[in-house]
Amino acid sequence: MLPYVIQFFxxxxxxxxxxxxxxxQAAMTLVIGIYILVGIVVSSxxxxxxxxxxxxxxxxxxxxxxxxxxxxxxxxxxxxxxxxIALAGTGSLFTLMSIPFLLILKDVPxxxxxxxxxxxxxxxxxxxxxxxxxxxxxxxxxxWAGLSIGIIYYIISYRILRMIVVTGGS
Length: 170
Hints:
It is a single chain. By secondary structure, the protein is an all-alpha fold. It has one domain. It has seven helices and no strands. Helix 2 (25-43) runs antiparallel to helix 3 (49-73), helix 2 (25-43) packs parallel to helix 4 and helix 5 packs antiparallel against helix 6.
């Protein structure tokens, strides 16, 4: 597993691409499982358990659908496993990197701001840039197109997941 983690860090540093990941079904299943587990653990810091489970389930479906549809549209479905491994693996890393900020924000009353939220913006922008980097390489597109796709994915994902959190999963 350690070689995968190193590759995920290298993708986050824009030194590796999704095509450097293995294309096996077993590797993809393992990384998706880790993505789900990390998401549940980290989301439970600030969400009720039922909301956490629903949020992570929807988030995972969005990630898989995003990758499959993007690759299908461009006729590159054969890259699905590698792209999903890259997206889920780097997504897990960014989720883990957000823990210190979430722990600080956990105690901030609703409607109040905190300095910690400002420090999350660079992490968010980096995450979107990494999604763009992955999609640029997976789809054989220019960097601006990959970044645009990353931004669109983040906005759609954020809006849908925010609706679940606001309604409390009901």
